[in-house]
């Protein structure tokens, strides 16, 4: 891991950009921590870190100042300035065509849109986690939140260092992920926008039902994809505080 930039904010939070192999990312750490901090992995949507930076940084700095958490994010494969992935570009072009034509989004297209990204992103998150936990200022335990829900499902099944996850129901879910969801046993908090124009509400509810976790909570709010209430930020932080401290 090579740090490429550093900025200290007025609230004491330190933000550092990094490169790990070909993976760019950002790490936020609280100031003057008396012990190594628990870590939250904040997975972005596939829109590029630069576009999503205000939202990601806002969450990370809140976690750091209010709860003493470190937080990190990485650019997803094919996102931002990273090289494009032909398989994803083709699937996204087909999705635009299908939506413009008013046709249903079939299971094969959902697989093509999501599974290649899951297969690439999850190993990168695990490699990033290796590097982050090697830093003296970070000690775990580890939480995961956000992004494409299928990435969170896969990561929760294969990565034993993740102790709790806050998942956002707002992306298409391949049928195979429902079986993987039954293997998830860590505490979960799932956020669902009831009127999300790009989400299949029933599929999101079915996925929540499929999770094997004994502790799982669904937060459903009225409104569209970008209308998440501000109070959900603190609700997510308190969820992580229960399980990471």
Walk me through the structure:
The mean pLDDT is 92. The protein has helices at 49-67, 86-101, 107-133, 149-158, 176-181, 201-210, 231-244, and strands spanning 2-8, 14-20, 23-29, 37-43, 70-74, 138-146, 162-169, 188-193, 216-221. α3 packs across α4 (149-158). α4 links the parallel β6 (138-146) and β7. The longest helix is centred in the middle third of the chain and has 27 residues, at 107-133. Helices cover 42% and strands 25% of the residues. The protein contains seven helices and nine strands, in the order ββββαβααβαβαβαβα. It has a nine-stranded mixed beta sheet with strand order 1-2-3-5-4-6-7-8-9, with helices on both faces. It has one domain: Rossmann fold (3-Layer(aba) Sandwich), CATH 3.40.50. It is an alpha/beta fold and 245 residues long.
Mean residue pLDDT: 92
Care to count the β-strands?
9
Runs in which pLDDT lies below 50 for 5 or more consecutive residues are none
Q: What's the quaternary structure here?
A: single chain
Distance linking N and C termini: 26 Å
Number of helices: 7
* Strand order in the sheet with the most strands: 1-2-3-5-4-6-7-8-9
CATH superfamily: Alpha/Beta hydrolase fold, catalytic domain
